[in-house]
């Protein structure tokens, strides 16, 4: 199990990544498409940090991590299929 210092550093990283969304959308240096892609990338990083440290997937056997990754991929495919059927 990680110590309090690790959790504090992860929390600070999550706050910094959340601030990135504000930066992307409130400054004119980024177009809407760039801000959207940047926000998605930051969200993926945040999900990885949360799943790895706060949900303790980093300490689990690799098979459980692969199963979780497969589940996330299947949800992604289901979302794509649902979006396609709406059009």
Automatic annotation (TrEMBL):
The keyword Ribonucleoprotein does not apply. One of its GO terms (cellular component) is plasma membrane. It is a multi-pass membrane protein. The keyword Cell membrane applies. Keywords: Cell membrane, Membrane, Transmembrane, Transmembrane helix. InterPro entries: Cyt_c_oxidase_su4_prok. The chain crosses the membrane at residues 7-27, 33-54, 66-86. This is Cytochrome C oxidase subunit IV. It comes from Haloterrigena turkmenica (strain ATCC 51198 / DSM 5511 / JCM 9101 / NCIMB 13204 / VKM B-1734 / 4k) (Halococcus turkmenicus).
